[in-house]
Fold these 3 entries.
Entry 1:
Amino acid sequence: MTDRGKVRNHNEDSGGIYFNADGQFLAIIADGMGGHKAGDVASQMAINHIQQKWETCDQLSTPSRVESWLAETIEEMNQAIFDHAQAHDTCQGMGTTIVITVCTSKFFTVAHVGDSRCYLLNDNGLSQVTEDHSLVNALVKSGQVSKADARYHPQKNVVLKAVGTEAQVEPDVQSLGWEQGDLLLLCSDGLTDKLTDEQLAAIMGKGESMVDTGQQMIDTANNLGGEDNISLILIQHDVSTEDGETTC
């Protein structure tokens, strides 16, 4: 689900859900940045690249194979966006944050660059899987700013890494186990700038349909100002009752 928000005149977020030749599941959110409409170009290039690569990819059965594939694909994506920006004056300096997850029945692998996030809701509550590549998060980690004050810091949207802004980028990639009923949230900072982790957990924990859950998140972000584009993907680990195979 994506929403322009209440202030921006266009939406620079992109997202997608794709399956490879073996039916494996990949989801991505990209939050573009740059000059006039250049953010749209960067985020859409990221989505197109990952879709093309994933849909022609064979099965990746282990976390290490998924992690290697994601790291290599993001490196290629970064180079393509960087080269495009260098070749087109209107796209100079453009880039995009990304958060990607590949889901299997036993584990999910997450890769990210920037401040788009992945959360996991399970029996232990809601946890943030990714760690923002942002100036404010660096200040929090160094003890210069409290986590509470970070939400209102004037430079809270300054990212330290993005795809396409430099010739090389190194994503964070990790794999975690998950179980039936667990719920993943991928989102751009248009959501997390407005909703606290406690608010996200309360909405996700209601047990409503994923469509209703996502819409409530977007409505809440807009009601709290909606200054940015808002995009999210919800993924629930489920078990098919027909053949007994675990899917997501």
Entry 2:
Amino acid sequence: MFDPTKPADNSPLDAGEMRQQLTSLKALLDAVHPIGGVTGYLKSRPNVPALPGTWVECNGQAINDAESPLNGLNAPDLNGAQGGVPCFLRGANASGGTGWG
């Protein structure tokens, strides 16, 4: 389990402890935002940082990450894939539902 108090301030780093912390943190992040998850991101707002390097914008771009199970696929285009009509995420009975209009 991730422990934000480790390693303690001004203590020597222990490689095993640090590896465990990073592994636990990755598991926590994957549980919150799993691979293939889509979330809103207000990139055009002032003071909002750029997307993290491991994320891609849903603009139809190819995913180029050899370690990703999505490598070689295209991200969905939520900016106008359907003849220039922007689409949006919506609830659906099946995974992957989108709306247009």
Entry 3:
Amino acid sequence: MSIYTAPFVVPCAELRVYQPLEAFSPDEQARWERYIVEGHRPSQRTRYLQRETVGGLGYLAAVEGDHADVRVVEGRYFLCPSQTRLRVLASLLAFGEAEPIDLADQFVPEAETRRAARELARLRKRHPKAVSFIMQSPWHVPVRWFTLFEDDERRLKEIHGRYRLSYVTTARKAMRRAERSIPGLRKSDLGPVADLIVELYEWLSAFDPASIVVLDYGGLCQFMTWDEMDDDRSARDVQEALKALSAGEFPRSAELYQSVVGRSAEMRNHESMN
């Protein structure tokens, strides 16, 4: 059995939802109230335990167990539960459903995928409203995530001696922006992108509209210089690209969109070097 610290984990961007404490079910609310009162907090450098499933497939899970990130805004508590088991199962299925790669069955055997599907079905039968509060994207920020944010919601702060780039908005605003972007995309060659944004909208609709939505560049920041983070205005470029698309200014829309895609592709190049 081995224990690893966070730097050994694949760098990921995260899209997280922090739901108001009072919006949870009564049982969950009581649980998280105890969690807050007892002063639980995840450590600054998360430690991971290497575990195995019944079928022998390895995965990493936080040593601290299931926890939640807590934010306090104007005296109101917002929580983002980690839901480690739910996310592990969903990730196994997503890997199996992704575009085929060589030796994929060596990473996630077909029998393991079926077992994960059964376990996830049982979990959702017991908890019909169970939905992950966190989306992760290794090595890059998906361009579609930026449709949820405006430039003035951008944050560049120093945290624990390192700079961190993020965006913060509310679920209500994010859903309105997603909904607004879909018609223009449907009328263009970017119809498949509209489908992905519909999925984002449906995911956000599972939470209280007053929830806080955070796009965190997370571990990707270690590959970015200060100038690169300062110059990264991807949400602004995406919003302007959508406006240009709606106005029929296709060359300008394409130029803005490609500038964001280019930054994303440059970030993903780090994957092949690691």
